[in-house]
Amino acid sequence: MSVMPECTTPGSGWFAVLPDCDAARAAAAVLGTTATRLVEHASGRPWLVGQWAEDEVTVATVGGGRVAVVGLSPLTGPRLTALVRHDDALGSLDRIGAGPNAGPTGSCHLLASQSGRLRSQGTASGLRRLFSARLAGVVVACDRADVLATAVDAGIDERLVALRLMDPLIPHPLAERPLWRGVSAVPAGTALLTDAAGNTRTRRWWQPPEPELSLGEGAELLAGALTDAVALRTAGGGSGGSGGGRAGGSGGVISSDLSGGLDSTSLCFLAARGPARLLALTLTGADPANDDLAWAHRAAAHLPDPNTEHHVLPTADLPPHYTGVLHAGEGVDEPFTGGRVRAPFAETARRMAALGSRLHLSGEGADQILSARTPYLHTTLRARPRTALTHLRATVSTQRWRLLPTLRALADRRSYGRWLADSARDLSPVLALDGTPALGWQPLRPQLPPWAGPDAAAAVRELLWQSALEAEPLAPTRGQHEALWSVRNGARLARQLTRVTSEAGLPTHYPFYDDSVVEAALSVRLDERTTPFVYKPLLVRAMGMRQVVPAELLARRTKGEYSAEMQHGLRTRRADLAELLDRPLLATLGLVDADALRRACLSMFPPRLSPVTLEATLAVETWLRAHAGPTASTAVNGSEAAA
Questions:
Q1: Cβ neighbours of residue 68 under 8 Å, at least 6 residues apart?
Q2: What is the architecture of the domain spanning 215-369+484-563?
Q3: Where are the extended beta strands (E) located within 187-318?
Q4: What's the pTM value of the predicted model, to 2 decimals?
Q5: How far apart are CA 473 and CA 493, in angstroms?
Q6: What percentage of the chain carries pLDDT values higher than 90?
Q7: What does CATH list as the number for 2-155+178-204?
Q8: pLDDT for 498-507, tens place per residue?
């Protein structure tokens, strides 16, 4: 591995994968203007270029083959070398990702090169992604879409900008598409294969598990996978990646959320068993009904390591939500709805880093893998009708679904493609508690906000119809498809948030998004993973059966929420929001009604409409500001003629 001159841009880590041919040198020269590191093929040609921490990449060379692990993994150089076959470096990735000596623990990219052939892949969850584009005549892969877009001088696709107004209800596979023309996404769980002639194709390397295990069987798997995932972070050995670090076996100092909820409490109790000193962080909200602090104090009192420090941080001491909203789209390669909390997340990261933490654990992802949304009832009715009817009665009552629409939704047997095409007919927003049953291929149908213009609706309809012609669901049944769709949706947000905190000096890790943890949870029957009568039964059983978390803490049924902070931020940052929406680029492109958007935002939001609806639009607007700037129409359409 070679090191180029030091990068002067903090937190700008990325890597690109180049084919093993002389023609790739021109592409390497383009990317090398901002790269600080280089790894070569066995031929001596450039293979990996980019910016990364010293411990983030582990490379093994066996004969003429090379394998690289980028990110968090238990594999040191010698252990990785032992897993690489002398004559099959590419095939070794299957062994490395699921072998008995390595296991899929951690969160990393796996890359291989041999005799001019390449294999490059991210994670099954989508937390670690890959994109590709043709640069200087060869196909280059990269973990950041914006790096490729800059290198190829790509324009922005206006149709995909309109699509992002639907976030987080963008249906598969459209949600994975980057917004730049000429830049493609490698689907999660899929490898990009490059032959000696430079031709590329994709091949699926991961298949989602069948949800057939009982609660007890799945809990045992989940307990083991989550324990290993947290232990890898506390140990600090192996390939660290983004703050993993090597701490000489001591583990150093790490921090973790401790909201008092099941997810973060489980992580804290697992982390307290490891060699790292733990800083447990509790944020206290403005809502007096928020009981997070009380439960967090109870949890902290039971943590097994007496050296654990419990830090309580009032949200009032952090920047208000929407602080820095004018710049919320900078440094991220796609719009993300976490822009509202970008400033408080960054400040929290700086404070914990100042206390010595080298990485921070978050419980995000637990909701996605531990709780199936209501489409599971459609699936369960066909597999276990008695159980489904029991769950359905409780759900209809709590969700206030109307009976006849519910019966029609349960009888619906449309394929995924048919459902996708039909969804294009009505893109109007769904109001809260309107009695519509959520039993489709995703919890709510695709929809646009009320301020979206006719051009936006036309663009989205076209994309939905085109996708419907050949789209396949992520799983054969609606329940499991929705679970996988939720995982990918959540991972998209987490991927950007960890970039924000990394730039502030403290990378955030999401153990619930490790592939091994995801696979364990999704192996459990839908109706046992989720029930209207027990809160997160799979995690309760997993942490209880090994006596990781005391039973009294597993009994919590409440969940803190922070809408008061959002409303406070809307009031406090009203001037910034008004400036942002004075002449929105989205209106310049003809995608939104500027007056309707301003009224919705500055009048503290319309009733019965999800706050995420506004967040998605603000995310797109701020992202356009950062990546298209004042010449939005040129940047968006500049490469249309070449597309």
A1: 39, 47, 48, 57, 58, 59, 60, 109, 110, 111, 112
A2: 3-Layer(aba) Sandwich (3.40)
A3: 190-194, 200-204, 253-257, 277-284, 309-314
A4: 0.93
A5: 21
A6: 81
A7: 3.60.20.10
A8: 999 999 999 9
